[in-house]
Amino acid sequence: MKLYDSGGPNPKVVRMFLAEKNLTIPTVKVDMAGGENRKPAHLARNPSGTLPVLETNAGNFISEVTAICEYLEELHPTPALIGATPEERAVTRMWVRKLDLGICEPMANAFRFSEGLSFFRDRLHTEPEAAPGLKRLVQVNLKWLDAQLEGKTWIVGSRFTLADILLYAFINFFSKNGQPLDPALERVGAWFQAVKARPSSAS
Amino acid sequence: MKLYDSGGPNPKVVRMFLAEKNLTIPTVKVDMAGGENRKPAHLARNPSGTLPVLETNAGNFISEVTAICEYLEELHPTPALIGATPEERAVTRMWVRKLDLGICEPMANAFRFSEGLSFFRDRLHTEPEAAPGLKRLVQVNLKWLDAQLEGKTWIVGSRFTLADILLYAFINFFSKNGQPLDPALERVGAWFQAVKARPSSAS
Hints:
The structure is a homodimer. By secondary structure, chain A is of the alpha+beta class. Chain A has helices at residues 9-20, 40-45, 65-75, 86-112, 117-120, 131-148, 162-174, 186-196; strands at residues 2-5, 27-29, 53-55, 61-63. Chain A folds into two domains: 2-75, Glutaredoxin (3-Layer(aba) Sandwich), CATH 3.40.30; 86-198, Glutathione S-transferase Yfyf (Class Pi), Chain A, domain 2 (Up-down Bundle), CATH 1.20.1050.10. Chain A is built from eight helices and four strands. A four-stranded mixed beta sheet of chain A has the order 2-1-3-4, covered by helices on one side. In chain A, helix 1 runs antiparallel to helix 7 (162-174), helix 4 packs antiparallel against helix 6 (131-148) and helix 4 (86-112) runs parallel beside helix 7 (162-174). The two termini of chain A are 19 Å apart.
């Protein structure tokens, strides 16, 4: 296996996932700031031009962090970060999609369309007019999540999972880049600090 | 198992998935038009208030169609609609997330914020100002997908998968509701007709 890596929230998801599994795999840094990910060599790995990408044992190039983490968990099931049973995996996947669609992707698009506009406008399609609405949508969904965290340690309950890693990596990046975490969201704030306290958060 | 079902694109994904697997499970219709999904009985099943929801054998309530379909595939692996190997599953999951984030969710949000506004404005958070930008983003991503379909029968290549079902259900619904499929996207158009020709598309 080989991981094509860079800065940004998505690559951090995979690095944290690997660290939690105590796995090390060969890594190639792709110069995203220099636009290397939008050039033919990387587009051949991933026509979306995004990072990270995992080159699998069979030579497939897998992009999209949830797909990469699922693959890693299939090959290295312990410790389970998605789940040890179909029921556990279903609960984790449910939360991962709720976070991905309701928080992570609108948060990232809002950034690409506003604070990140000068960087992204020549690299992908941007819609500046949509940024304020997407930011408000994210805040509404984070407030909803705050209520859902009542009585829970981690996003799915008592298991630390990919859902925690995914949301942590996104909030960690975007809270410093135009979408600060509202201090009124006390449960989200406490959960964020609990993830940050794990050694993997430095990955 | 028990499926809580309704109209709309997401529930259709699960019904098509079940039909392709030749599975029948007990189904309860929830009156989405009448707002039953936003009342306490359904919110106890799914705090997001969305449909469908699968009640599993162990009594968990699973929302989010990708999580539901993964669970169904784990219990009924044949025919494989996600994949028969970790490599196959990784490729399918990669495409499912590309479609979910780049096309399906912005398409659905654009609808909720425009043609669907009078229905949704009292049911969830809406951002009308973001609708035109999200619609344009979807068109850009569909054009990208059209190029990716060159030489392929299905989204991932030669295997019919959850990726096809997901995108079909969304285009089928929203192309009749304010986001018509651009006839210039010839490969997407041919692919759409190929999915429509499968008996499961009537589910």
